[in-house]
Specification:
- The protein has helices at residues 3-29, 37-54, 64-76, 87-91, 93-113, 116-121, 123-149, 155-166, 170-179, 186-215, 220-255, 259-279, 284-294, 307-316, 326-338, 340-362, 372-393, 402-408, 413-425, 431-458.
- By secondary structure, the chain is mostly helical.
- It is globular, with a radius of gyration of 24 Å.
- The two termini are 43 Å apart.
C-alpha cells in the first residue's frame, strides 16, 4: 500500500470519526443544547475540517476560497436529502460572530498588503470602474431586466433588485489575488479600490431605497449626508491614521516591545476602525481595510524584530564572508522584517477566514433550483450582473488587463445576500424575487474564482 493511499485512508477515517461524533452529539444533546458552548466547539471543528476538505480544489489549480464556498453550499443543502445534522450551525450566534470577525480580519490583511501610494496611482481608474459598476447594473436591474422578466412587482422591489446588482464582494476577489500572491499588481489595486468605492455607493443606494420604502420619500440632503459621511471616513481615517499611528506605536512600545504587544496593537487598530465604520453606517470591512492601509512597518520600528531577523543581525556582526557584503544580507532580511505584522495576523486569519466562507456557502439555498421559471429569470439577471461589471472594467484605462478587472468585480457574495435579506425583511421582496437574487449571487460568486485564477496564472508581471 503506497503512502499516498494510506494518507487518504487515514484522512477519510478521521472525517468519519468526526462525522459520527457530530451525529451522536446532535442526537444526544437535544434541541435545547444546540446553542451550548461544547457543541459550538464541535461545529467550529467541523467547519474548519470542511474548509480543508474543500481545499482539495487546489489540486485542480483552483483557489481555496472556491472549495470553501462549494463545501459550504453542500453542507447547507444536505437538508434537501433529509439530512438536518448541520442546520444548527446557521443558528449559532458565536459561529456567526466568528464569521463576521473572519471577513474583518481578511480585509485588514488585504489593507496591510496594499499600499496607499499604489492605490493613489490607480485612483481615477478605480473610481471610474466603481461608478460604472454601480450605475449600470442598478439601472439595468431596476428599469430593464426587472420589469421585463418579472412584470407586475412593486417599484420598490425593482429598486432592491437593482441595489443587489450593484454590490461587489471584495472578500472573494481579494482572497483569489492573495492566494496567488498577486495583490501588488495594478489590476488588483484597481479592483480593491473600486470594490471599496462600490461598497460605499452600494450602501448609499441601500440606505436611500430603504428610506423610500419605510418613509415614502427621501431628500437630496439625506443622500448627500450619507455620501459625505462615507467619504469623510475613508479620507479622514487614512490621513489621521498616518499621523497618529507612529505616535501610538511609540507609546505602546514604552509599555512593552515584545511580539505580543505588536500583534495586540495591530488588532486593536483593526477593530476600532471596523467599529467606527459601522457606527457611521458603513460596513465594518471598509474600516478594517482602511486600518490595514494606514499601518506601515515604520509604525512598529520601536518594537523588537522577529526572532529570525534578530538572529541573523547578530550573526552578521561577526561575518567576514568574502563573496557577500553586510549590506546585501541586510537587504535580504529587510523584507521579512517589514512583513512581520502580516505574518503575525496570518495564523488568526487561518482560523477565522475559512469560517466566513464556509458559512457564506451554507446560507445559499438551492431549493429555488427546482423552479424552472425562477432559474431562467435568475440566469438572465446573472448575465446582466456579469456584463455590468465587465463593462465597468472596460473603463479602467490603458496598460492593464480590463477583462481581469471586470471579472474581479463580478462576485456579489454575502453583500448581495445582505441587500436581498433587508428587502425581504421590509416586506418588499417576494420569495420568488429573493430566490432569483440568491441564484444570481451563487452564479456570480462561484464563476469568478476559477476564471480569475486562470487569468492570473497567465498574467506576467
Amino acid at each position: 500500500m503506497t503512502r499516498k493511499i494510506r494518507s487518504w485512508i487515514y484522512s477519510l477515517s478521521f472525517v468519519g470519526v468526526v462525522a459520527a461524533g457530530v451525529v451522536t452529539a446532535s442526537g444526544a444533546a437535544g434541541d435545547s443544547a444546540h446553542g451550548s458552548l461544547a457543541l459550538t466547539f464541535l461545529w467550529i471543528a467541523v467547519i474548519l475540517l470542511a474548509a480543508k476538505l474543500g481545499g482539495l480544489v487546489e489540486k485542480f489549480g483552483q483557489p481555496a476560497v472556491l472549495g470553501e464556498l462549494v463545501i459550504g453550499v453542500i453542507l447547507g443543502n444536505l437538508v434537501l436529502l433529509g439530512i438536518h445534522t448541520f442546520e444548527p450551525i446557521l443558528e449559532d450566534g458565536i459561529i456567526k460572530f466568528l464569521a463576521e470577525l473572519g471577513v474583518v480580519i481578511l480585509l485588514f490583511q488585504i489593507g496591510l498588503e496594499s499600499n496607499v501610494r499604489q492605490m493613489k496611482e490607480v485612483g481615477m481608474s478605480a473610481f471610474l470602474v466603481a461608478i460604472i459598476g454601480v450605475v449600470l447594473p442598478f439601472v439595468l436591474g431596476t428599469y430593464v431586466v426587472g420589469p421585463w422578466f418579472m412584470p407586475g412587482l412593486e417599484p420598490a422591489a425593482y429598486l432592491f433588485l437593482g441595489a443587489a446588482l450593484t454590490a461587489t464582494s471584495v472578500g472573494i476577489t481579494a482572497r483569489v489575488f492573495k492566494d496567488l500572491k498577486k495583490l501588488h499588481i495594478p489590476e488588483a489595486q484597481i479592483v480593491l479600490g473600486a470594490a471599496v468605492i462600490d461598497d460605499v455607493l452600494g450602501l448609499v443606494i441601500l440606505a436611500v431605497v430603504s428610506a423610500i420604502v419605510t418613509v415614502g420619500a427621501v431628500s437630496l440632503g439625506m443622500i448627500g449626508w450619507i455620501l459625505a459621511k462615507a467619504i469623510l471616513f475613508l479620507v479622514g481615517s487614512i490621513v489621521l491614521g498616518q499621523l497618529l499611528a507612529p505616535w501610538l506605536g511609540k507609546m505602546f512600545a514604552k509599555i512593552q516591545t515584545g511580539i505580543g504587544m505588536k500583534f495586540t496593537l495591530a488588532v486593536i487598530v483593526c477593530l476600532v476602525f471596523a467599529y467606527l465604520a459601522q457606527v457611521i453606517g458603513l460596513a465594518a470591512i471598509v474600516g478594517a481595510f482602511a486600518a490595514g492601509l494606514i499601518l506601515d512597518p515604520v509604525h512598529f520600528r520601536y518594537f523588537k524584530d522577529p526572532h529570525v531577523v534578530r538572529d541573523i543581525k547578530k550573526a552578521m556582526k561577526d561575518a567576514h564572508a568574502k563573496n557577500i557584503t553586510i549590506k546585501e544580507v541586510e537587504d535580504a532580511i529587510e523584507h521579512h522584517s517589514e512583513r512581520h505584522i502580516e505574518d503575525l495576523i496570518e495564523p488568526l486569519a487561518y482560523f477565522l477566514v475559512p469560517i466566513f466562507f464556509v458559512l457564506t456557502g451554507m446560507e445559499v439555498s438551492l431549493a429555488a433550483l427546482f423552479d424552472g421559471r425562477v432559474i431562467l429569470v435568475a440566469l438572465a439577471i446573472s448575465v446582466v450582473a456579469i456584463l455590468g461589471k465587465l463593462v465597468a472594467g472596460a473603463v479602467a484605462g490603458k496598460g492593464v488587463n480590463k477583462w481581469m478587472i471586470g471579472i474581479g468585480m463580478v462576485p456579489r457574495g454575502e453583500v448581495g445576500l445582505i441587500f436581498a435579506s433587508i428587502g425581504k425583511g421590509l416586506g418588499v421582496i417576494s420569495d420568488e424575487l429573493f430566490s432569483v437574487i440568491v441564484i444570481m449571487v451563487i452564479v456570480t460568486t462561484l464563476v469568478t474564482p476559477p476564471i480569475l485564477n486562470v487569468m492570473l496564472k497567465k498574467h506576467k508581471v
